[in-house]
Amino acid sequence: MGRASRGFSLVEVLVAMTILSIGILGVATLTGTALKTSSYSQALTQAVHLAENRLEALRSVPFDNLELTDNLTARTDLLRACAGAAPAFNCTPTNTIDVQWSATDFTATGKMRFTWTYVVTYLDIDGNGVANPSADGAKRVDVTVAWTDLLWHDTRNVRLTTIITRR
């Protein structure tokens, strides 16, 4: 038999299989990372959307009541307990937000739970060294939306800030 018709040696086949295995392993690792990143991006986008939604909902609360506990509001999504003293108040809404996920999201329930809190801080607009909402007419509102990442299993959050003024 001539040299051209002998085929591959065992060493050549083993080298080719090793190179192929390393390539497949690399692609599999990238696929797992892509899935985790995609899941995080989807949750982060949802959290930003919810934070924007909560800021807009808080604009419907009368200026003087932003930092007050409210258990009677007609909008159940704005029920909250607030604590603190001027110039900063921490408010914890009594509800969570469940978001329905698509079937590709590796969750048993198909839902991801987001919680939100906000902080109201009086602003010293006139620069006299005292933050007084009656005189200055402005409050900073920081809304934080938190969730537990389903793949990384740790708590993540996003915070948006706005200034609400007396109308």
Describe the protein in words.
This protein is of the alpha+beta class. The chain is 32% helix and 30% strand. It has 2 helices and 6 strands; from the N terminus they run H-E-E-E-E-H-E-E. Strands 1, 2, 3, 4, 5 and 6 form a 6-stranded antiparallel sheet that branches. The radius of gyration is 27 Å and the shape is elongated. The protein starts with 9 loop residues before the first helix and ends with a strand.
Strand content: 25-35%
Q: What is the C-alpha radius of gyration, as a whole number of Å? A: 27 Å
Counting helices, strands and paired strands, the structural category is: alpha+beta
CA-CA gap between termini: 96 Å
Helices, by number, come to 2
The proportion of residues forming helix, as a percent range, comes to: 25-40%
Order of helices and strands: HEEEEHEE
Shape: elongated
The major β-sheet equals: 6 strands, antiparallel
Mean pLDDT: 84
Question: Which SSEs are present, and which pair or pack?
Answer:
Elements: H1 10-58, E1 80-85, E2 88-93, E3 97-100, E4 111-122, H2 133-136, E5 138-148, E6 155-165
Antiparallel strand pairs: 1-2, 2-4, 3-4, 4-5, 5-6
Based on the model shown, name its key terms.
167 residues, alpha+beta, six-stranded antiparallel beta sheet, 2 helices, elongated
Describe this structure in a few short sentences.
With 167 residues, the protein is α+β, with helices and mostly antiparallel strands. It has two helices and six strands, in the order H-E-E-E-E-H-E-E.
